[in-house]
Write a structure and sequence with these properties.
about 140 residues; four-stranded antiparallel β-sheet; 4 strands
Length: about 140
């Protein structure tokens, strides 16, 4: 999984996010957590669009290279902070996985999935995506 560095700033009561290595990809949120969650979704959509249009998404630069970038340094000088945002890509194809877990936990997952009207697999995939977002 790739991670892109985002620049996050706060102005006019909202957090704005840009990606130096994903030009034109932006996100925002009323809170920092909302902004990062929106940034994760925006980055995935941006990369999917690049690929759909026959382009390759640029590789994220190492942090050392970004910190040497004059535009990044300028944004930091104006108060922007850096955040690591995971690129969650959907390949469009399913893969079977055999996992083991406690039977009680599996029963809880099945009950929660049923309440939400989704399959066990969809529930586990959504939980995994959310956990990955939280570790950004």
């Amino acid at each position: 999984m790739s991670r892109y560095i985002a620049l996050i700033d706060f102005a006019d009561g909202a957090y704005g996010v840009i990606f130096p290595d994903a030009p034109g990809c932006t996100a925002m949120g009323a809170t920092l957590d909302e902004a990062i969650a929106d940034a994760t979704n925006a980055l995935a959509e941006w990369v999917a669009e690049e690929i759909a249009e026959g382009r390759h998404a640029p590789r994220p630069r190492p942090i050392e290279e970004l910190l040497a970038d004059k535009d990044v340094r300028s944004a930091q000088g104006q108060g922007a902070v850096l955040a690591s945002v995971p690129l969650l890509k959907d390949s469009g194809r399913l893969a079977r996985a055999n996992i083991s877990m406690d039977a009680g936990l599996l029963a809880d997952i099945d009950e929660a999935a049923q309440r939400q009207g989704v399959t066990r697999s969809a529930f586990i995939a959504a939980a995994a995506r959310e956990r990955i977002r939280m570790t950004a």
